[in-house]
């Protein structure tokens, strides 16, 4: 069975592991990361608080800073995503009259953010120095280096049909996305085999490429390349991950889905020539 490679930042990476990662970044733009502390921090209260928030009255959620309503986020500017979401620490979110999220909910988000910061430098050094062999200074510029945290809620009861996609094929912006999911056999994350098609855009890739299912597993998260890293490094080294979330189907038709994404948005300074 084909799977994405996995790395453990606490262990020394042997040459075979590094080469497998290089291949995965070109073929899928994604790999798995052994991150038990990060996974446990999400399971330890954040999921409960997130579900509680998304059950609040619509008028309360709509007034909350960072909230996006059901179907308001678009893929490629045209296709609505059947989900709700809330984003934290996103730049340029300056809507007036917003209220903060519930205090306990926000406390758990802060804990996740702080937990991630303890391992981000190791991950960046591995990916950029060892795997991509880059000498571009991708961190160290405070005005450009930041992460936002996004929590997405998918409710199968609001799907038009039970066999639709929760999220159509798309790429994330930024440099890296760290995706944290519940251990649920019904989770429908799939990543495209970018070598199975000559298409480059997410729409064409979504129509033509083969897709690899990425099951959830205890203590693992998924790391995905964003479009900014692809622009910086070039497609010969790293491809932006085209991914989708398949709907729950009949077997899991009553199971909702909560996922947590940490979106790393750093850019090189100075930027490379156009």
TrEMBL record:
Phylogenetic lineage: Eukaryota, Fungi, Dikarya, Ascomycota, Pezizomycotina
PANTHER family the record matches: 2-OXOGLUTARATE (2OG) AND FE(II)-DEPENDENT OXYGENASE SUPERFAMILY PROTEIN-RELATED
Residues of the Fe2OG dioxygenase domain: 145-267
Name this protein carries in UniProt: Fe2OG dioxygenase domain-containing protein
GO MF annotation list: metal ion binding; oxidoreductase activity
Protein family (similarity comment): Belongs to the iron/ascorbate-dependent oxidoreductase family.
Alphabetical GO biological process terms: small molecule biosynthetic process
Keywords: Iron, Metal-binding, Oxidoreductase
């Amino acid at each position: 069975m084909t799977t994405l490679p996995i790395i453990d930042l606490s262990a020394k990476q042997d040459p075979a592991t590094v080469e497998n990662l290089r291949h995965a970044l070109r073929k899928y733009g994604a790999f798995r990361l052994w991150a038990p502390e990060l996974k446990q921090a999400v399971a330890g209260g954040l999921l409960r608080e997130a579900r509680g928030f998304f059950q609040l009255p619509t008028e309360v959620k709509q007034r909350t800073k960072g909230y996006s309503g059901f179907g308001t986020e678009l893929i490629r500017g045209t296709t609505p995503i059947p989900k709700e979401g809330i984003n934290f620490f996103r730049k340029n979110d300056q809507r007036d009259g917003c209220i903060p999220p519930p205090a306990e909910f926000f406390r758990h988000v802060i804990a996740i953010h702080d937990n991630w910061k303890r391992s981000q430098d190791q991950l960046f050094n591995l990916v950029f120095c060892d795997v991509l062999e880059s000498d571009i200074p991708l961190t160290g510029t405070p005005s450009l280096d930041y992460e936002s945290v996004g929590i997405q809620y998918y409710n199968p009861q609001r799907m038009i049909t039970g066999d639709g996609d929760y999220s159509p094929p798309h790429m994330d912006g930024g440099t890296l996305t760290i995706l944290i999911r519940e251990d649920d056999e019904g989770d429908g994350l799939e990543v495209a085999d970018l070598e199975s098609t000559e298409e480059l855009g997410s729409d064409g890739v979504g129509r033509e490429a083969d897709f690899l299912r990425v099951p959830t597993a205890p203590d693992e998260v998924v790391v995905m390349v964003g479009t900014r890293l692809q622009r910086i490094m070039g497609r010969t080294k790293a491809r932006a991950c085209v991914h989708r979330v398949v709907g729950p189907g009949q077997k899991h038709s009553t199971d909702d889905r909560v996922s947590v994404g940490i979106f790393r948005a750093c850019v090189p300074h100075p930027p490379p020539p156009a």
